[in-house]
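Hi L.,

You mentioned the student needs an example of a multi-chain input paired with its predicted structure. This one should do, with 564 residues in total across all chains.
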Amino acid sequence: MRPIRWPLVKELLHKDLEEIARSRQLLYPLFVLPVFLTGDALVTFSFAANGLSNNGLSTSTAFFTFAEFLLLLPVILPILLGASSVVLEKTNRTLEPLLSTPLTDTELLVGKSLAPLVPALSLTAASYLVYSLGALAVVDSRESVANLPWGSLLLAAFLLAPLLGLLSTFVALAVSTKAKEVRSAQQIATLLVLPILLAVIGVGLAVGPNLVGQLVFALGIGAIAYAVLQVTVSRFHRDQILVAGV
Amino acid sequence: MAEYLVASDLTRSYGGPTPAVDGLSFSVRRGELFALLGPNGAGKTTTIRLLTGLLGPTRGTAYVNGLDVRDLDSGPEIRRQIGLLPEAAGLYESLTVRRNLELFGRLFGLSGSDLDGRVRTQLLSLGLADRAEERAGTLSKGLKQRLAIARALLHEPDCVVLDEPTSGLDPEAAKGVRDALLALRASGRTVLLSTHHLEDADRLADRVAVIRGRLLAIDTPAGLKERFFRHLVAIDLLRADDRAEGLLRTIDGVSSVTREGTRLTFEVGTGEEIVPNGVEALVRGGYRVRSVSALNPTLEDAYLRVIGAASPPPPGAR
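Structure written out for the whole complex:
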């Protein structure tokens, strides 16, 4: 197998990010969701931490539960960007010139995967940072801060979030290469990641801030992401992308 | 190697009852400007995609400078040797003109001062230097096409493939593209061009191929015209009717008689007596001859003859 030429991948990534940055249609939803979810998680956590919540959640459980909601970001954000990445090249008729460059299928796939993944994971990491800083400001004593499940939060932010992001990106790309237009690609990809969203919420609530439970969940997500990657790679041929959906 | 692009029994099916391209075999010589002609849906774009390795053949194969397009490992090298102008310019419209060129330059492995120099050269030679910092989306269609040509030439490919380069352009913009094609030809590059503009093909191409799924004819423009219209003669009468047409048809060596107003046009075979015999027959029939002239058939005439000969008969025709 030919080694990946990273400067070419970087150029493709740079181009995609530049296009995202210049498109209000793509940019606004990208920021609205993290702001909304992080703000909501922080406000709800502050209520729980100050004893204003009526559902009897402990500060520690509330901290973890609302942190888990931020895992929706690496699932949803790649769909917003990834589902349109290839199909937009098709509808804008830029795909053929791109495919006529010496980029290999693998380089194209990696470049197109990184473009939704990088902003999605950056925004997720930023949201976790804001949430953590906010939580520190809300919790009143050092003892309470020390009792918060920081290990679970780190595991969610640095293991589960990237794995979920990868899984969501591969689903979005697989759909994007076959779709005829952007809207249908986003709708189909959203439908396909719904089970992942439900799993994130369900498992998060069931497992709680249990490190072993979280690790097992991460392993499961990793295995599914790998399987989806295999399917995406096997279907990612320039010949089929060019012909599909036209 | 004298042949740069070779199609060998090239066939591509999209799953329909008939293949889009069926058993095409021809070659484009190094340094030649070769035009691919055919009606809409004839398979010109599919042929171009097959020859440039963008699509894989269902049967047969194609070679680019000796590299087999079926060999996946050769793909990047094949694409490096070819500069492609697709049917649609396909520019990144939110990026500037310069950025569009830089992006493709880097994807073709260029960098640093080499890239800067080539971008500058292309911007100057295609008259885009003063628009370099504008977004590609703000350019006119003609300028977009020129930018797409600049993009195809940036990595200095040995072979340039252009799919309908003057389609939808106004006469001035089309002339700009034709000038660019002439410059390409003068530079000694191999050029494959698909076009509906038969005048362009007649004026620019060394050889032409007419396709309609299959290869119908291949020759030089002059050869194609000669093959289908050996000699075309027009006789202008003061008055013409069906009887005049009929009189001409009785002359040995006269064929394909048509009448348009008072002008009778017909093809003549070999023999010096055919035209005088025709004129004499008309005069004896009471017709007064205003003028007799030899006509030069155009490539369009030859093309329509080729396509017409290949057309399936209409339903119910005998």
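You could point out the following to them. Chain A touches chain B through 27 residues (CB under 8 Å). Residues 105-138 of chain A form the longest helix (34 residues).

Best wishes,
N.
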